Amino acid sequence: QVQLVESGGGLVQAGGSLRLSCAASGRTFSTYAMGWFRQAPGQDRELVAGISWTGASTYYLDSVKGRFTISRDNAKSTVTVYLQMNSLKPEDTAVYYCAADRAGSFITVVPGEYEYWGQGTQVTVSS
After folding, report:
1. C-alpha–C-alpha distance, residues 12 and 88, integer Å
2. Which are the contacts of 67, defined by CB distance < 8 A and separation ≥ 6?
3. Residue 88 burial (CB < 10 Å; 0-12/13-18/19+)?
4. What are the residues facing 81 on neighbouring strands?
5. What are the tens digits of pLDDT across the range 106-120?
6. Which residues of 102-121 are buried (b: 16+ CB within 10 A; e: fewer)?
7. Among 40, 29, 36, residue whose Cα is nearest residue 60
8. Beta carbons within 8 Å of 31's beta carbon, 6+ residues apart
9. Smallest Cα–Cα separation from 80: which of 49, 34, 11, 42?
10. What pLDDT digit, counting tens, does each position of 13-69 carry?
11. Do 48 and 36 contact (CB within 8 A), yes or no?
């Protein structure tokens, strides 16, 4: 059974930090590229950060560069992907989703290219 389970969302004041985690199991996710997407009400889902299967390549949305860091732990059968979010802003408020792409060496910003998705976790940043 494939599972991507996000955790770590919540309510935080502007300037604060949160760390999101995604536990992925049921496939060999150590060979998958992983991404964190977000979707705010009335807006399209966008890739915030992505990481290749080895961790050698990463991608960040321009608006989060220098504030967010994506990392992964492939050491166990359940792969865990983290998104460290610092200096949060009200515009970061959204539902954040973890996603997995079988094309492990490449990071795509297209949501339709990701095969598996988590249920999402709400991040709310108050001003």
Report:
1. 8
2. 85, 86, 87, 88
3. buried
4. 22, 72
5. 999 999 999 999 999
6. eebeebeeebeebebbbebb
7. 36
8. 53, 102, 104
9. 34
10. 999 999 999 999 999 999 999 999 999 999 999 999 999 999 999 999 999 999 999
11. yes
Annotate the chain with DSSP letters as a single string: --EEEEE--EEEETT--EEEEEEEESS-GGGSEEEEEEE-TTS--EEEEEE-TTSS-EEE-GGGTTTEEEEEE-SSSSEEEEEEE-S--GGG-EEEEEEEES-TT-----GGG--EE---EEEEEE-
Token duo for residue 1: 């059974």
Q: Which amino acid is at 117?
A: W
Pair of tokens at residue 98: 């973890």
Q: Quick check: 104 pLDDT over 90? A: no
41 exposure class (CB count in 10 Å sphere: 0-12, 13-18, 19+): exposed
d(CA 26, CA 36) in angstroms, rounded, equals 19
